[in-house]
Amino acid sequence: MKGYKMTINEVRRPPMTPVREEKEKENKAEKEKRLRSMAYDDEEVKPNVCRICGAILKYDGLGEYKCPDCNHSEYDSYGQVRKYLETHPGANIIQVEKGTGIPRSRITRMIAEERFKVSNGKVSFDE
Ligand SMILES: [Zn+2]
Fold it and tell me: pTM here?
């Protein structure tokens, strides 16, 4: 292609400046806006009936729902990701998606909501 130039080197991160703090405030507002506009089919589906005995589940904290009759536990998306990370510390988003079957969009959403965090590509949660 005549006249075509690679532009990848032109894309550089902006230098760190004192306006960074302002920018971060902006980013936070942007993030909240983005969260509100995210697709609603990403909404959490909370388990409410025990699939073993049909009793109404009781929320037990950290995404876990316990059956008062047979003690069976069900987990919402948060609980499933958390449970997976407990046994697979250091997993990345793709591994979490594969391991839990929860769509990446919902995992990303939970990260945006700061229910999980990502550092060096590894998903984790606060104790
Ligand atoms: Zn039950």
Answer: 0.66
